[in-house]
Amino acid sequence: MHWNARRWIPLLTFVVAVACGPETNNDDSASEGEASSSSSAASSSSSSSSSAGSSGTTAAPATTSGGSSSSGTTESPTASSSATTGVCEFICEEDSPGPTIDCDIFAQDCPEGQKCAAYDSDEDGAWDSTKCVTLTGDGQLDDPCTAEPGATGVDDCDAGYMCWNVDEEGMGTCYALCTGSPENPMCPEGGQCAICQTCVIPLCIPDCDPLLQDCGNGELCVNDPNSGGFVCVLDASEGDAPEGTPCEFVNVCNKGTTCVSPDFYPSLECMGWIGCCAPFCDTDNGDADCVGLSVADAECVAFYGDGEAPPGYENVGVCGIQP
Known about the structure:
The protein has 323 residues and is mainly β. It is built from no helices and 17 strands.
């Protein structure tokens, strides 16, 4: 009987430096998509089905990424959730001021010399408001950028872009903001529109290949439970999490590995933990990529079920033990 690994990986959420989890819209035509209605989940779960990728029954590990120096944990919603848990996970003050929407990020309708930017209105870590800010630079897609500390929305990217994956020194990369509308978001070719459920950032996240790990410096290629594909996120591993080490978020594992259930990758070091770092593998190589690991007899298990892989991901697998 053929088994695949897709539902045996509980994709934990991304550890990010914002308090909202963008929900990804897969843009197959590179010009339009539909906003998803799923919400976040951060618990691990095992399933009786047998695939290694994200699914409607699994939760998702986390990643560290973000657009500012503010801190927080952003959850990456799973496809099975039906309602968002809301910003009250982070702030529940009854007298907290509501968000202020002074401009349209999709339309970029600010006066000349300004851009519509998201910002944190009450310093709770959530990008909950928009305002027009003075343009301080003309950074384009993938250009290096500098962001003002404190999630103010001020950076040196051009209108229609946002400084994202910002490090402690305020340096990041210009990402495109989605155009169109929340109901019909659009991104440049090679990107997916991630629409946050509890904040106001519609961000175009670049696609990537987990076997090639072809993201930019300081980024990892990890599985996205919403689109079903793979996206670039900030590398939070610091090189300290090789295969067989415990994890709670997908981007805390070293490049080339991902956070899966210890049931699927039962390394002794991971017993009692929510997740375990397991390496990606190429199913075209049989089990050769899974030899000499901390889990004896690991096999290269297809990430997707039969006929479920998006184009280009047909040979993506994860090392683990078949159920």
